[in-house]
Write a structure and sequence with these properties.
- About 40% of the residues are buried.
- The longest helix is centred in the middle third of the chain and has 17 residues.
- The chain has about 450 residues and is an alpha/beta fold.
- About 20% of the residues lie in helices and about 25% in strands.
């Protein structure tokens, strides 16, 4: 809306209190911070502008192809004639004519364009290209432009394997909350770099953004460093009653649309997830999962879909996904040996559910360990118990036939909501391999040894 000249006040009201108006914002196993926690930019638009673009790469007969969709809008009350140029680094990728009626929004799409000289993006070689969309008026003058970084990479599943650029790979990763005692959930660039450097030192090749889309800057760093990303929408541990909140489906779908719309071009994101540990064992829950997974497929056909389940041998939604994923905590929440528990679960997935023959991931595993709590008795909550338990858990997972990898819960200790204090010492989730200040626990060396010895990409 065009405003008259003069001084104007832009007021933003934020409220992080819990209530029925937000189905996803509930007391949970992580802290809810208030205020504006992500970067904000204010941009003055011309009469016509490029509102976004999506870049898609594909391997065909061993050669790379590229396609793009560009979203343009005419804010004026008269038609617009012009053209759009797409450039990849310093080379023209395509030129498209543009005709917009008054107030029209349009999507301009290219066909698949061969790029035989393209260099693949991979964890070992995270090659990025600058994709520029330049909108020109009828007189040839530039009206608007948009620049983003993209990569040539392809992710797909084949039988029980996940393939990156046609090659099978194994995940060695961490779940990570955006949480820091100095910065809350608004970590600066340097703190993000430190987290990724520590994960790399530990031998990780992936990070799971639990349990919400992450800061764009963190995803940029993952693109640059070759860190594969599991990204998921905002929901954790919701019961069927929670999911029956009248705002639930709309707010989940809004989150999915925003997540994919904003993050589609990040080559590091290799999988899209939803609804961590929600009611995937009930018929009502199944319908919610079905709708959200279908929405993801309609918005993004380039990435596999999954969700992290905790419904032991009762989940009824694995026929809806491309990758079966489970959160398990043997030797922590129960005393069943890790190899026995995992084999029992894996065999059930292959025989009794729609997950048979699909890739299988462990998306959470771990044990609590309070930094500085050392004892030769190796009791629970000690660093010794955490390290010993993780070694047993990881050895079982990485030797399980058909398992494509593991995400450790979690990278760093994080704050939780006050209502969780009775089961979380220090009002913290203490399962981090490093504490909240990123100080290594004994488990650090254990994980580094196991991950360094695990199989690399084939």
């Amino acid at each position: 809306k065009k405003l008259p000249a003069g001084e104007h006040t832009l007021e933003v009201l934020v409220d992080n209190s819990f209530g029925p108006d937000s189905a996803l914002h509930v007391p949970n196993d992580y802290q809810t911070y208030g205020g504006i926690t992500r970067p904000v930019a204010l941009e003055e638009l011309a009469g016509q502008y490029v509102s976004g673009m999506h870049f898609t790469s594909a391997l065909r007969d061993g050669k790379w192809h590229a396609a793009a969709e560009v979203f343009v809008e005419n804010l004026e009350e008269i038609p617009f004639e012009g053209s759009l140029e797409l450039r990849l680094d310093d080379q023209t990728l395509a030129c498209l004519p543009v005709h917009l009626e008054a107030g029209e929004k349009a999507v301009l799409a290219t066909p698949q364009i061969p790029r035989p000289d393209a260099e693949a993006w991979s964890p070992e070689n995270p090659r990025l290209y600058l994709l520029s969309a330049i909108l020109y008026g009828k007189d040839g003058g530039a009206v608007d432009d948009l620049i983003d970084r993209v990569g040539f990479r392809e992710v797909r599943t084949e039988g029980k394997d996940i393939l990156l650029n046609g090659r099978k790979f194994s995940i060695r990763g961490f779940c990570r909350h955006e949480d820091h005692p100095q910065f809350g959930c608004s970590l600066p660039w340097s703190a993000m770099c430190r987290d990724l450097a520590l994960m790399r030192d530990l031998g990780a090749n992936s990070v799971r953004t639990s349990h919400y889309p992450n800061d764009e800057l963190f995803l940029d760093l993952c693109d640059e460093t070759g860190m594969l990303v599991w990204e998921e929408n905002h929901a954790r541990g919701l019961s069927e009653e929670d999911m029956r909140n009248p705002n639930f489906e709309r707010q989940c779908e809004d989150c999915i649309r925003e997540m994919i719309g904003a993050h589609y071009n990040h080559p590091s994101i290799y999988i899209g997830g939803i609804l961590n540990e929600c009611a995937s064992h009930t018929q009502y829950g199944r319908e919610c999962y079905r709708k959200q997974l279908e929405l993801i497929r309609s918005l993004d056909q380039t990435r596999p879909r999954s969700f992290a389940s905790c419904q032991f041998k009762t989940d009824i939604c694995f026929d809806l996904v491309d990758v079966v994923s489970y959160n398990i905590y043997p030797l922590w929440y129960h005393d069943t040996p890790a190899d026995v528990y995992l084999k029992d679960l894996y065999d059930w997935v292959q025989k009794e559910t729609g997950g048979s023959g699909k890739p299988f991931l462990i998306t959470e595993v771990g044990a609590g360990g309070i930094y500085g709590c050392r004892t030769p008795e190796k009791v629970k909550w000690s660093e010794e118990y955490q390290a010993e338990t993780l070694e047993k858990q990881l050895s079982a997972i990485l030797s399980q036939e058909g398992c494509s990898g593991v995400y450790i819960w979690q990278f760093c200790d994080c704050r939780v909501c006050d209502s969780w204090f009775s089961i979380r010492p220090r009002t913290m989730n203490n399962k981090g391999i490093v504490d909240e200040y990123r100080r290594p626990k004994l488990a650090y060396a254990t994980v580094k040894k196991v991950f360094s010895g695990a199989g690399k990409e084939e």
